[in-house]
Amino acid sequence: MTAQQAAPIGATSPHVSESHKPASDTDEQIDSDVAPEGPITTATPSGGHAVARRRQVASNFFWTWSLKAGGVLVGLESELEFRAWHYLSAQSAVVHMKEQPVRIPHLFSSGHRYTFDIGVRRRDGSECLYEVKPESRLELMADGTLAPKHWNEISGWCRASGRNCAFVTDTDLEAHRQLIDNWILMMPYVREAHEYPEPVVQAELVQLAARPEGITLADAAANIDSHTYQTVIAQALWLVHEGELAADLDREALDADLVLYTGGSDE
């Protein structure tokens, strides 16, 4: 197969792993059933807390397959959460993720309990809980900064319980639009390579990418003619996902001309 024969990335995706459905964002995560709190490492593979049935009915979830969540489908409640999930997943320092990871057990002044949107564990063992919120819905705090509703109470509870927390807005994510779009596009290929690994192809890809100038996806596929173009691309993107190969996904489009290098990012 020559580089000219290469199909566009995404044209023959092996899995349909993303479902783009409209969903409304709520002021805070509300659930009437209290589940046990705890670190994200103790939660179930696909999430820390089951979402109440009434909320499942009310929301059209955005679904994504995620290797960092244990190789399962993850349901996010809005497009903003969906994109935040992929942004955090693209960080090589993040090794494990959960949706709805921890619920604060006590009631707020509104009479509701609060559940974080996303939890991550990093390679160094540290964990962080994330709230995802449109910047337009942040509130002015006493110190003049903008933060989500109840943030002082939320962050205070986290400090008291030895947890780290942060919030992510649409403005934060917009600065990484290319990276997020690329990561979303990668997931069907990463899933294929995870389910059908080709160690020989992976070893060849690492060898080819070790060239000083690296190698494009198209040239890598042309050099490994023992397997289909799609198989080579899937194995290459799995290696990028795992940090064994590097690519400038924050600035370059995921297409046949994307250059692969050896060595991953430490961000």
Task: List its traits.
three-stranded antiparallel beta sheet; 267 residues; four-stranded mixed beta sheet; alpha+beta; disordered N terminus; single chain; Trna Endonuclease, Chain: A, domain 1; Arc Repressor Mutant, subunit A
How is the topology of this model organized?
Layout: H1 53-58, E1 62-66, E2 72-76, H2 79-89, E3 94-99, E4 103-104, E5 114-115, E6 118-122, E7 127-132, E8 139-140, E9 146-147, H3 151-160, E10 165-168, H4 170-174, H5 177-195, H6 199-209, E11 215-216, H7 217-223, H8 229-241, E12 245-246, E13 259-262
Parallel strand pairs: 7-10
Antiparallel strand pairs: 1-2, 3-6, 4-5, 6-7, 8-9, 11-13, 12-13
What can you tell me about this protein's structure?
With about 270 residues, the protein is an alpha+beta fold. It folds into two domains: about 80 residues, Arc Repressor Mutant, subunit A (Orthogonal Bundle); about 130 residues, Trna Endonuclease, Chain: A, domain 1, CATH 3.40.1350.10. The chain is built from eight helices and 13 strands. Strands 3-6-7-10 form a four-stranded mixed β-sheet, sandwiched between helices. The longest helix has 19 residues. The protein is elongated, with a radius of gyration of 20 Å.
